[in-house]
TrEMBL record:
ANK repeats (start-end): 949-981, 983-1015, 1016-1048, 1049-1081, 1082-1115
A Pfam family reported for this protein in Swiss-Prot or TrEMBL: Ank_2
GO molecular function, one term: kinase activity
Organism: Penicillium chrysogenum (Penicillium notatum)
UniProt-recorded name of the protein: Kinase D-interacting substrate of 220 kDa
Length: 1156
């Protein structure tokens, strides 16, 4: 084209009197006809955009690029021999299709390239989305739906004018960018005008040639001679054949693709979204968002869409192809020869016609996509950072400026998880999440083979990791036996603000994400697209909110709120459960907004000092956001967990460090790590605070079973220092009761060391005692940390008082050992220098019995300084009264440390003197000491242990009717039925025997069996009857005591109660359904016993009134009347006879009515 322009520009410089033949011989005659062979770029461009017969006609009139058209037909439809002939034997079909056809196919596609459109090979990432208005059938309101073209056709929002719908075509989801966005196709009127003009030019050239040959031959001679006779016929035939050949070349090319024409039936928009940083071949494509819409960005029904796909109808149709190629080639040859024989002006006319038509063909499609069509050009770099084009597109679609997650208040544990129904209070947030979820589904459908999925996006990968973590966590917790139902949901809170002028931030709304059990294995499953939507939108909003978000390092709050992160207790449990390598830091509260997220961004100048505990991390924003969502999920699901369970221990870490461990927490951490949601430390930072918030964090103190076993193992190996380090580690990192118990355990370990036979061990034990007497072990630990402690972390007055009391009791114990144990007097100077008191205040009871107090203190000293555990232990055990006084003295004076030491000493003797534990539980219940009871339980002792008589502590308390003691023992797991191995020690029978109504009621309330029997086969009911405890009898009967159970002689309770003094009980038994005619082993009934053995008229009358059968016989055939006569019980004989006559009279009417 540029060459033609160049030669045309030379025309004005040719003088008028120049010889035309000289000029044309050099230019027109030799060069001009050959120009029609070339024009490759223009030809390929026109062919690749031709979609109609009219395009083919325009292409064939005064054609340019004959050689390109021929080669193009061969490349598209030619055989392998033809392709080899033109040097394209090894060319794949995709390369030819991408250059020459307007269609897309399974191997070709189109991408935006900074304002232009580039055809590429393979499956690039680009999505075509149709948005249309529809009416919600439930509410009747208008709503906007989005989907693919296939979705729009299925929803009748778009229609197709073809008889065969393209909904099943795999190419339907591959966008045709050039035909629908890249080229702004002119109205058909201009195409008809171009065809007409082309026809006029072509026929005009032929007409002009006719005039030069036949009308004015004298004026248009060739070398002063008339033109050759062959010239015009060959020119005419050649031009005709060339037109036909070029037309069919274009026709074959145009029919090698099939077009479907779609139009909008409902107001619609079409979007094309292309992610950035795509490497396709040797090109990198940036993010692009283009849209076809109505005026002022409105939806319109005027949208049209052309879908062009590959059609192979001309494959192997060699007759049509060869005919077309032959016509084209022969036509060019004939036209060339004919033009060489005609006047030069005809050649110029043909050249001019070709030039004009080339310009017209180009002008038909010069209006291309505007440079500013990219709706995302301003955020392109930000989107490319994490490939968040879908999130930016969702913001654009819903016109949203801001979207953030907010932390919701805890749902009470009494409110169960509602049925899975996602809901949002804020409508804008609802629509935004729904839109983003649909976008996720549209770009991740595994059944869509037409375009590449977007699964390599960091947000999508993290969302899938989060979804898998949540699913596996649900499977894990269900495997623990927690009933989570068939569906479960957890709530997330959001706030959202539109981008329209005057928009305000909507009040926080809730969105529920559901899980369901699926498949034969009933595994939990959730919609990962929902998680992706929330995670992506939130992350995108965070990135948009600040320029430093991309480069800033992040930190996570230790805890679930600023309040928790500012507490000393948080630092302690961090070092106990979480700390691995990264130390916590204190930062100001203005660096984080705990109402929205639990992580923050580090300022460029670094983290200043403050009062909130945080952990610096190398994680990305999407990872931190995903972890926040996991925390919210875990908070919800933990409402269904009553107790965490698992084994608790302290394990060894790197560089001889110690770590808190729980098997159940380790399982949760494994789920977290296995699905790449973060490191182990990240997992603990998310899990531990939630468990603590839900009161599920395991109790890890020095008295835990695993810790005690580890301590004993170290002691057995002679590693006393390691044992002390283990307990000190727990003391330093514990709080509340766990701290107190751990300190007591450490103190008792010191006592054991002081009583050890090894001098080295004794000295190590005394060194540990001095450390404890010198300073608070936990405060000492905090002072050695590398952080500047806040002022409000100082010891409280209660803690100071507690530590002072503990030090005093420990010091008194140390003094006792120094005075009572031979060889331990070396401790006295050090104890004096530490101002350790040698005596303790406190008395027993009202303080009147000083001797009892002295005996109690002496007994305590004897127990704590005891070295010969077996022999001396038995001697001490015989002094039962002193043991009781010792226990009471410690309890009444709140000497908790000494009480703890005493109980541990008894536990230590448990293997040799088992019934010590029964004594301990009995004393604990008698004095109502929860500390004693809990200490014994945590040491692994059996609350139902028996003494030498086989009695349990509960039996002892029931026997005396001590209600408070009974309740305390039952609340801590005592068996209300006692042991089957000791039937003589049934707590219920003991309470009944003692007549303790409240004790009986409590035992029954806690599940005691009302029909339990003792070693004699006597039930509680019979014992109550024997003692004439009417209230207890009624209570037992109301609680399900059986009335038909028999004694050794076969007597039932009713028979046994047929005495004068048991008359009220007899009536109670009858009232509760006792069988009034029951018989013993001799066949005697209660009525028989009343007239023979008991001779009781009141009982006789009650039995007869209640329907006792006077005709029943015993094993010897005797009735009650017979027995009354034999016993000379005349009053009974009269009553029985009277009763018998009344019974007979009642039968007479019936008998009379039946007589004939």
């Amino acid at each position: 084209m540029l060459s033609i322009l160049f030669f045309i520009s030379l025309f004005p410089f040719v003088k008028a009197d120049d010889d035309w033949d000289d000029f044309t011989n050099n230019l027109a005659t030799d060069l001009a006809p050959l120009i029609t062979l070339f024009g490759e770029r223009l030809t390929k461009q026109f062919l690749s955009e031709s979609i109609s017969i009219l395009d083919n006609v325009i292409f064939a009139l005064s054609p340019l690029g004959v050689l390109t058209a021929v080669v193009s037909v061969i490349r598209i439809c030619g055989s392998s021999s033809l392709r080899a002939f033109v040097g394209r034997a090894q060319e794949g079909p995709a390369e030819a299709e991408s250059e020459l056809l307007p269609c897309v196919s399974e191997s070709t596609a189109e991408l935006f390239n900074d304002g232009g459109i580039t055809r590429v090979f393979g499956r690039p990432k680009i999505v075509e989305i149709v948005a249309w208005q529809d009416v919600n059938h439930k509410t009747g309101e208008k709503e906007t739906k989005i989907g693919t073209l296939k979705d729009a056709l299925e929803e009748k929002a778009w229609s197709c004018n073809n008889k065969v719908l393209p909904t099943e075509l795999p190419e339907l989801d591959i966008p045709n960018l050039s035909l629908n966005k890249g080229i702004k196709r002119r109205d058909q009127f201009w195409f008809h005008c171009a065809a007409i003009l082309g026809g006029v030019l072509q026929t005009g050239t032929i007409t002009y040639a006719t005039l030069t040959v036949f009308v004015y031959p004298q004026h248009f001679k060739k070398d002063d001679k008339a033109v050759a006779s062959y010239a015009f016929p060959l020119y005419l035939i050649g031009t005709t054949l060339l037109f036909l050949g070029m037309f069919f070349c274009a026709f074959i090319m145009e029919r090698s693709s099939k077009e479907f024409y779609l139009k909008a039936e409902k107001p619609s928009k079409i979007y094309w979204l292309q992610p950035g940083n795509q490497d396709v071949g040797d090109q990198v494509f940036n993010a692009f968002l283009a849209v076809n819409e109505g005026p002022e960005s409105s939806m319109t029904k005027k949208l049209r869409y052309t879908k062009s796909i590959r059609d192979r109808r001309f494959d192997r149709k060699y007759l049509e192809i060869y005919s077309t190629l032959t016509s084209t080639v022969l036509g060019f040859i004939f036209q060339f020869i004919g033009l060489r024989g005609l006047h030069a002006s005809v050649i110029l006319a043909q050249l001019g016609s070709t030039f004009i038509m080339s310009i017209i063909r180009t002008c038909l499609r010069t209006e291309r996509m505007a440079p500013d069509e990219n709706k995302m050009k301003d955020d392109r770099d930000l989107m490319g950072h994490k490939q968040q084009e879908l999130d930016a597109f969702a913001f654009y679609l819903e016109n949203v400026e801001y979207f953030n997650m907010v932390l919701l208040p805890d749902r009470p544990a009494t409110i169960p998880s509602p049925r899975f129904v996602p809901h949002v209070d804020a409508p804008l947030a609802r629509q935004l999440i729904r839109t983003r979820t649909q976008l996720a589904n549209l770009t991740s459908n595994p059944n869509q083979s037409s375009s590449a999925t977007w699964d390599d996006m960091p947000i999508r990968r993290m969302a899938h990791n989060l979804a898998q973590t949540i699913e596996s966590t649900m499977d894990l917790i269900s495997g623990w036996g927690v009933d989570l139902g068939k569906t479960f949901e957890f709530r997330l809170g959001f706030e959202c603000r539109g981008a329209s002028p005057g928009s305000v931030t909507q009040s926080p709304g809730t969105y529920s994400i559901g899980l369901m059990r699926c498949g034969d294995a009933l595994r939990w499953k959730m919609e990962a697209s929902e998680i992706e939507a929330i995670l992506g939108l939130w992350t995108w909003s965070l990135y948009k909110s600040g320029d430093d978000c991309k480069s800033s390092r992040l930190f996570r709050l230790v805890g679930l709120s600023e309040e928790e992160a500012s507490k000393k207790e948080t630092y302690l449990y961090f070092h106990k459960w979480i700390f691995r390598q990264t130390e916590a830091r204190l930062v100001p509260s203005d660096l984080i907004d705990d109402s929205r997220r639990l992580f923050g961004f580090e300022p460029k100048e670094g983290l200043p000092l403050g009062n909130l505990l945080v952990i610096k991390t190398e994680n990305e924003v999407e990872t931190m956001a995903a972890q926040d969502i996991f925390i919210q999920f875990l908070k919800e699901v933990c409402l269904n967990v009553k107790e965490l369970g698992g084994e608790v221990d302290v394990v060894s870490g790197i560089q001889n460090s110690l770590l808190g461990s729980c098997t159940r927490i380790d399982e949760l951490v494994s789920c977290f790590e296995a699905h790449s949601l973060g490191s182990r430390e990240d997992a603990l930072l998310c899990i531990v605070p939630v468990l603590r918030n839900r009161n599920l964090l395991p109790d890890l103190a020095a008295d835990c079973a695993k810790v005690r076993a580890r301590r004993e193992q170290l002691i057995s190996q002679g590693k006393w220092k390691n044992a002390f380090d283990l307990l000190r580690w727990l003391c330093e990192r514990s709080e509340g009761p766990q701290f107190q118990r751990s300190v007591y355990e450490l103190g008792y370990l010191c006592l054991r060391a002081l009583l050890n036979n090894s001098e080295t061990v004794r000295k190590e034990g005394f060194a540990q005692v001095c450390k404890l007497l010198n300073s608070d072990i936990r405060e000492e630990f905090l002072q050695t940390q590398k952080i500047l402690l806040p002022s409000d972390w100082s010891m409280s007055q209660d803690r100071i008082e507690w530590w002072r009391s503990f030090s005093s009791e420990l010091g008194w114990t140390a003094w006792s050992i120094s005075e009572e144990v031979p060889g331990m007097s070396f401790m006295e100077p050090a104890l004096k220098s530490l101002n350790v008191p040698q005596s303790l205040p406190g008395v027993i009871g009202t303080g009147q019995d000083l001797q009892a107090t002295e005996d109690a203190m002496r007994s305590m000293q004897d127990w704590l300084t005891l070295r010969d555990l077996v022999n001396a232990g038995f001697r001490r055990l015989r002094e039962e009264e002193d043991n009781r006084l010792c226990f009471e003295w410690a309890v009444e004076n709140n000497y908790h440390c000494l009480l703890y030491f005493l109980l541990l000493k008894w536990v230590e003797l448990n293997d040799r003197i088992p019934f010590l534990i029964t004594i301990a539980y009995t004393l604990a219940a008698t004095k109502h000491s929860h500390l004693a009871t809990q200490t014994l339980l945590r040491q692994g002792t059996n609350i139902d242990a028996t003494d030498v008589q086989g009695h349990t502590a509960l039996f002892n308390q029931a026997a005396v009717g001590h209600v408070e003691g009974i309740v305390m023992l039952l609340d801590n797991g005592a068996d209300p039925n006692g042991s089957n191995e000791a039937p003589n020690a049934r707590p219920l029978i003991a309470a009944v025997y003692g007549g303790h109504l409240m004790a009986v009621a409590l035992l029954l309330q806690y599940g005691a069996d009302a029909n339990m029997t003792d070693q004699h086969g006597m039930s509680a009911l019979l014992w109550a009857m024997a003692s004439d405890y009417i209230d207890i009898v009624e209570l037992l009967l109301s609680s399900g005591a059986e009335t038909e159970s028999v004694m050794s002689d076969g007597s039932t309770a009713l028979i046994w109660a047929s005495t004068d003094k048991s008359l009220p009980i007899l009536e109670l038994l009858i009232k509760h359904g006792a069988d009034i005619n029951a018989q013993d082993t001799d066949g005697k009934t209660a009525l028989m016993r009343a007239v023979s053995r008991e001779r009781s008229l009141p009982v006789l009358r009650v039995l007869l009134d209640k329907g006792a059968d006077v005709h029943m016989e015993d094993d010897k055939g005797r009735t009650a009347l017979d027995m009354a006569r034999k016993a000379n019980f005349h009053e009974a004989v009269a009553i029985l006879k009277s009763s018998d006559r009344n019974s007979l009279a009642s039968w007479l009417p019936d008998l009379t009515s039946r007589s004939p």
